[in-house]
Amino acid sequence: MTDIGRRIKTKKRYGVVILVASFIVLAVSLAGLFAKVSLDLNNPFQYHMSINGDSGQKAAEGDGSEDSLSDYNYTVTISKHWLNDPGGPLENYGAQYDNAIINNSSYDLVNWHVVVSVPVRNITIDSYWNGEWEYDKSKDKITIYPDEMTETIKAGETGGFGAVIISDELMDFEEVTLVGCRYKPVTKYVIFWFIMVLLVVWATSLIAYILYRFRDRNYRKNAERLNDVISQTMTTFANFIDTKDEYTKGHSARVAYYAQKIAEKMGMSDDEIRDIGHIGLMHDCGKLAIPENILNKPGKLSEEEFDIMRRHTTNGGNILKDFTAIEGIRDGALYHHERYDGKGYMQGLAGEDIPLVARIIGVADALDAMNSDRCYRKHLPKEEILSELETHMGKQFDPKIARITIDMIKSGEIFIE
Length: 417
Known about the structure:
With about 425 residues, the protein is α+β, with helices and mostly antiparallel strands.
């Protein structure tokens, strides 16, 4: 995997982690909101009221919550009454008691019931509507539960209910306790808006991530296709270079291979290893400007001919001076014949002043030269190649790179016949 691929994979991993983490936060927040709504719906308040007079006006003590004194009004009106068995032993009163809860609060009233203290003993509830009335004789209290008509009293509205009660005398209800829950819409909770913001952010991130994945897939396909084009183009160009010298066919590809093995052993990144392979393919491109009679001369070159041959490094530097897509490709062509002791050509650079890619290519180039047949000699045996690398460590070759190469030859990671 290349550095770019690794970075892309890391970013995708981070993207997934962020999406999952934000989804968990969203889910926990939603669960918290539902829990709060459920708690509020099942956590009843008590609202105590004293009712004075026939008009049903009240004086409220409230439950201590904000604006509780004015949240609810409770009225009781005797809309009709009559006398049963006048003057007889069973004389009593029948009356219709119309009750109403006026919801002045900002929230619907739900899960409610009313407990009324009865001022007269021995009553009989004859009938009731919009609710269910239960009389507890031992406590002299009536508990009123809503039916489906009055189970929710909306904010700003009134819920009416009533009963016909038979009693020894007409009653004035004085003590009433309203027990109920406020239905608070989810939009009234601060956490709801936090969830909405988080949901928008999460949804936007999800869409962006999906789009990114599509773009990333296309990018990777294009990058792989472009890399293939570059590799094939450079391989073709390297083959064209090598055909000028009948004894060095495949030389550029082998130098590229050795350079990549060395770079890998040195712990370079995947991108750097790939690039140094391309640099190895192009390191001798300057030979295109060298006459073939010099390249293929079987005997020793004259001083003038050697000067021309040495120019392949500067020729390569000039050819690649505008090639900026691969970092170091010009350095590989221009400086691969510099020596670690400063006695190389063409600039006479020494030590780490020589670019690293050129030091690697220099070792790989010399290794292939020693391991290949040339017009003036046969390839050197393995032991002699190892001896040459040992002898010229710190002189011709970077000692660290030479040592790595020697170790790989000995271990078989680089095969030498």
